[in-house]
Specification:
The protein has 125 residues and is mostly helical. It contains 5 helices and no strands. α1 runs parallel beside α3 and α2 packs antiparallel against α3. The protein is extended, with a radius of gyration of 23 Å.
Amino acid sequence: MSARPVDPVGFRDPSEDPAAIFEALPPSHRVQFQAEYDEALEAAHDLARFKQVQTLLRQWRLRAIAYARPGYEEAVQDALQERTEMFTRCTPPEWEGRVRATRSMASTDAPSTSYGRRRMRPSSR
């Protein structure tokens, strides 16, 4: 026997097939997908805008996958209600030095104006 990753029950990657994406989406998102897909198809008559359909299908495929993940709705509600304690910050091990250096630079080298720009001192020429 070989081990296989566990997917949400009954979920299949819809690839970039519009009908499969539509079926994979929760009913609450299907109307929006259909409207955006129809609009992209109409725009695709102009060959310069054909890629719009491909981009839309990729985006909605990823959304369908995200919506199917267990805990997705709870995570959205946590984010909307700013419950940040539920989120885990992940810093790849190879970035540790960079992150520490950036944080220390930010604390010692704070900009002097509200827009992140430093005031320029007049030159002594």
